[in-house]
Design goal:
The chain has 108 residues and is mainly α. The chain has a domain at 36-108. The chain has helices at 3-21, 38-64, 72-104. Helix 2 runs antiparallel to helix 3 (72-104). It is elongated.
Length: 108
């Protein structure tokens, strides 16, 4: 991966972090979710990972079929982006499960 591509991925990660650190509006009623709720952000991230995996598969298929507009480098970078995105979401899920288990094991 070139420095430019690495910087682009780091920029995306920083933008997502900044988006997640923005304060959310208070909930107006019990049980009512806000537009910027954690669940909505997590759902968007899962959709983005799914789209990245789909784009990677599409590029790979096009390369295998001999599309001259798709280079091996594009296929490899796309595959790595999809893989890193998936690994990041899995790590977030693991941390959430660990935090949930910690809360559930707390004495009342």
């Amino acid at each position: 991966m070139s420095d430019l591509q690495i910087n682009a991925v780091l920029g995306q990660i920083r933008a997502l972090r900044a988006q997640m650190e923005q304060p959310t509006a208070p909930v107006s009623a019990p049980g009512e979710a806000t537009q910027n709720s954690f669940g909505a952000v997590l759902g968007d991230l899962v959709k983005q990972v799914n789209e990245a995996q789909g784009a990677s598969k599409d590029l790979s298929t096009r390369f295998e079929q001999g599309d001259e507009r798709v280079s091996l480098a594009q296929v490899m970078v796309s595959g790595q982006k999809a893989s890193l995105s998936f690994q990041a979401v899995v790590q977030v899920r693991n941390k959430l499960l660990a935090a949930y288990q910690d809360v559930m094991n707390m004495p009342v």
